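All the exercises in this workshop are built on plain-text protein records. Sequence and backbone structure share a record, each on its own labelled line. The structure tokens are whole numbers drawn from a learned vocabulary of backbone shapes. The record below serves as our worked example for the rest of this section.
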Amino acid sequence: WGPKVREKILHHRAMVALSMIALRSNAGAGRARSDRRHQTAMMAVGSKGPKEFSVPRLGTGTWAWGNKVVWGYEESMDAELGRAYEAARRLTACDQASNGAGALFDTGDSYGTGRLSGRSEVLLGEFGERHRSEDDKGEGEEALLATKMATYPWRVTRGSMVSACEASLRRLKVDKVGLAQIHWPASNYNPLQEQALWRGLGDIYDGGLARAVGVSNYGPKQLKKIHAYLAGRGVPLATCQVQLSLLSYGPMQNELVAVCADLGVTLIAYSPLALGLLTGKYGEGGVKAPTAIRSLAFRKAAPKCGPLLRELERVGEECGGLTQGQVALAWCVAKGTVPIPGAKTAAQVEQNFGALGADLTASQCAALERAAEESGARVQQNIFQTE
């Protein structure tokens, strides 16, 4: 094979590894619009739940919490992760535009590698318990914990989904999770399992295990199908997560934004900083990614990011000195989504929430999208994403 073929193979392997890392990490454990000013998603969640389900303008992703392979996690980081947790709660409470919504933390039962399987949920449970013990007056909105149940091959019954959610509740140390989600659809390879996932998600809601339910990696066509199914049961579909950033925005994401607005579903944007590429840290002349998998993932996109990073910098200056990453997040908010950038330190949380100080204009958004398109830089879409 020539160099170009080998490069394509390496890049594909990196993308597959990033998409499959959650599955591999737990395999050893066994069964173990909305317009631009849409800033808080408020929706009825039915008679079985509270009158309103509120989502803040920006959340915090916790994929890195427990993941050694992609993010270089070490248990010595836990104290700083705890500070990041508290910073997210404090900054969400200070964001008046979020109308009192609790801090959003996105996690999943597959987050954590090897013996650290489920570590992200465990840490959130510990941090939440400590926060409640220190807040003896009971002041402040409860955090919105949003977990995802992985579509493992052995989860082929509706009951297995319910059991998975119950296990997550134990790790999170709560009686009811804020948002329970299907991590990825099985419709592309096992339609029968997909039906079981839908039934199980409805059972989770009907059983009072979650205030609201949602999906992840569902495209517009599949989203309409599960929305119709759940509506037939009287279960509202609250959210849909999708990989969405300036380096991952095409016809599918554009259609999904419109479909979610039509259905009243909040669109959550995961990987809004494209694994850190849109911070400018790893672009032209930037530092090398700290893990091998992220280096492989950046191999093709990073060298092409210069024009987009320069446009992010220019828009940031127009907005009073925002960083490139903050502008990238502000763009996600302007598209009517709720971005959930990851954070491993309190300083990173502060940086992320700084994006809420911007209100990008339509012309600024168009300029950013044009720069992204002209650069040719793209990150690989999740292999489990459906149409």
